[in-house]
Specification:
With 330 residues, the protein is of the alpha+beta class. It folds into two domains: 243 residues, Aminopeptidase (3-Layer(aba) Sandwich); 74 residues, RNA polymerase II/Efflux pump adaptor protein, barrel-sandwich hybrid domain (OB fold (Dihydrolipoamide Acetyltransferase, E2P)), CATH 2.40.50.100. The chain is 21% helix and 30% strand. It is built from six helices and 19 strands. It has a 15-stranded mixed sheet that branches. A four-stranded antiparallel sheet has the order 16-15-13-18, with no helix packed on it. Helix 4 crosses helix 6. The structure holds zinc ion. The site of zinc ion has 5 residues, from loops.
Length: 330
């Protein structure tokens, strides 16, 4: 296979704190010999585990970038045992556009794995992580939120995996992250996901959904920072005491957790995030966008549980995810 064109401007395997870029050549109208410059910090101190830490896999999700910028700016080499590889803006072009996908190629980085060394900009980023950075990692933390179109109760997640040993390790890392909710996540579209690439390599993954709406809050950023620190202590990379608070465990057993709209219109959510719902409760209504006097269309929960995600904007389209129900475990 071809070599990936990305080159780091800093060493990835030397002790100390190094701030630099992953430099991805990108020739274009406004810069003939230009590059996409993806910021990266590597902090290494002797032997130990390596954590690969990423935010803005989707460019409009902000808790990860905030927590990782702070970690990169404040961590000293002597604080670390092993290595931190910190990339706050994983899909950097998308992040700079405040968008989920890249403005260069419309690439959704979390559907682009394993990527291609000779593909689009997004595919080249995926390939570099797939073949260069992921093989260096013992644990990957990839921060997500709902972006501009979804909002979530704050949770860390682990996937149901065929490799039960890896599933256990991922579950323990999720518990160390200790978000207010912990979810065994059922993916609706796992092909091409970074998560799948990490897990297929046998590497522990912690992923999150910490909020949404295309912004972060003081509370959601605090959850990201605490969880990140806890996970790094769990793996022996940082020292100190983990901060452990109560966390509600949720399960997503099947597709009945999801409620999708089949209409365009004015979106009315009927329950708020974290609220309990019974099976057949109306969780959302959609009003006609262009006439009065019509009854709203009702969308009902197909199982009981807690509202863990909702469509964020005030208008909804056919095919949009309107609501997600999680099942509370005892
Ligand atoms: Zn995301």
């Amino acid at each position: 296979m071809k070599a990936n064109p990305i080159s780091p401007t800093i060493p990835l395997d030397q002790d100390g704190v190094h701030h630099g870029f992953l430099k991805l050549p990108y020739s274009r109208d406004d810069s003939a010999w230009g590059s996409v410059m993806i910021p990266i910090t590597v902090i290494q101190n002797g032997a130990g585990k390596t954590a690969l830490l990423t935010g803005a896999n989707h460019g409009d999700e902000y808790e990860g970038p905030v927590a990782l910028q702070e970690l990169a700016a404040t961590t000293r080499a002597e604080d670390v045992t092993g290595r931190l590889i910190i990339v706050p803006y994983f899909n950097y072009p998308a992040f700079r556009a405040s968008a989920r996908t890249s403005p260069i190629d419309r690439g959704n980085l979390n559907r682009a794995f394993p990527g291609r060394p000779d593909g689009t900009v997004t595919e080249k980023i995926a390939d570099y992580f797939q073949r260069k950075l992921l093989p260096m990692a013992d644990v990957a933390v990839d921060f997500h939120s709902g972006g501009k179109t979804l909002d979530f109760v704050p949770f860390a997640a682990a996937h149901i995996l065929e490799d039960k040993g890896l599933q256990e390790a991922c579950y323990a890392a999720m518990q160390a992250f200790n978000a207010p909710y912990s979810v065994q996540l059922l993916e609706i579209d796992s092909e091409g996901m970074y998560d799948t690439a990490v897990e297929d390599m046998g590497t522990v993954l912690v992923t999150t959904e910490l909020g949404g709406g295309g912004m972060s809050t003081a509370r959601s950023n605090a959850i990201a920072k605490k969880g990140l620190r806890n996970v790094l202590i769990h793996f022996g990379i940082l020292q100190g005491e983990m901060q452990i608070d109560p966390s509600v465990t949720l399960d997503m057993p099947d597709g009945d957790c999801f409620v999708f709209s089949e209409h365009d219109g004015l979106f009315e959510i009927m329950v708020d995030l974290g609220d309990h719902v019974e099976k057949d409760d109306v969780v959302a209504r959609v009003w006609s966008p262009d006439r009065t006097g019509q009854a709203p269309l009702e969308y009902r929960a197909r199982r009981g549980g807690v509202l863990i995600s909702r469509h964020f904007p005030g208008m909804i389209k056919s095919g949009d995810c309107a609501a997600v129900i999680g099942v509370v475990e005892d």
